[in-house]
Amino acid sequence: MLESVGALAGSPWIYPAVAASVLLDVFLPLLPSGVLVITAATAAAAGSAVTHVPDIFLLIVCAAAASVLGDLAAYRLAWRGGARLDRAIARSRRLSSAQERLGVALARGGGALVILARFAPAGRSVVSLGAGAAHRRAREFVPWSALAGIAWAAYSVALGYFGAQWLGASWLATGVSVAALFAAGVAATCLMRRPATRE
User: Fold this and answer.
1) 0.90 surpassed by pTM
2) How confident is the prediction for the chain on average, in pLDDT?
3) Which CA distances in Å does 69 have to 44, 144, 148, 156?
């Protein structure tokens, strides 16, 4: 599997693959979109060692744009979900809590929760669906979603690129970069849960 990911990262197909993976992982959080972005950035750092050298800026644009489009798709789906989705959210303590906290955060003009959720495992899905189900206005959610997508994409690409610069364009560099992305996800999850424990 690692060989096929590496081959994809060194081909022009990396851009649509990154875009599709990032867009769809709002619905299927198990998709390794972060791993794919980091691997592509590692290939960019490798330069002439790969067949096609991915462009760092284009990688960030693809990943960030796909992140926002995925968020909007989940948001609109939840907005139109109706009574069935409302009942599903009401049955889930996690979704109900996230919906309530997101509503408070957006009403106060702060979207740090949206940005943190982009880094937390499955957090993006919970927040996007919660915002749509709560019928939060798009102008309250979309700017924060865009900022979150840019931050996540830039961080992921930087991890892959600079990891390869420091450790060499190898699977070790990719592994260390993926571990750093995972650590950011753990930290984001802890920060998202902290206000709930104080209440």
Assistant:
1) no
2) 79
3) 25, 13, 12, 18
